[in-house]
Write a structure and sequence with these properties.
Elements lengths: L9 H7 L2 E6 L2 E7 H6 L5 H8 L6
Antiparallel strand pairs: 1-2
Length: about 60
């Protein structure tokens, strides 16, 4: 069974998820195990900005 949760709360996602999928404008930019998602330095730009809290909301 799989449960899909959509959230902007990174702490909650890190605590509850096994995998992180990052979507931007309907495109899947990242699909990684949770630890990899938070530790990798080669994430797509939008995902990396989201982790840093730097996404421009227009």
């Amino acid at each position: 069974m799989a449960l899909v949760m959509s959230t902007h709360n990174l702490g909650q996602a890190r605590r509850l998820a096994n995998r992180m999928l990052y979507l931007d404008a309907g495109r899947l930019l990242a699909d990684l195990p949770v630890d990899d998602f938070f530790k990798r330095n080669d994430l797509p730009t939008a995902a990396a900005q989201f982790l840093k809290g730097e996404l421009p909301w227009s």
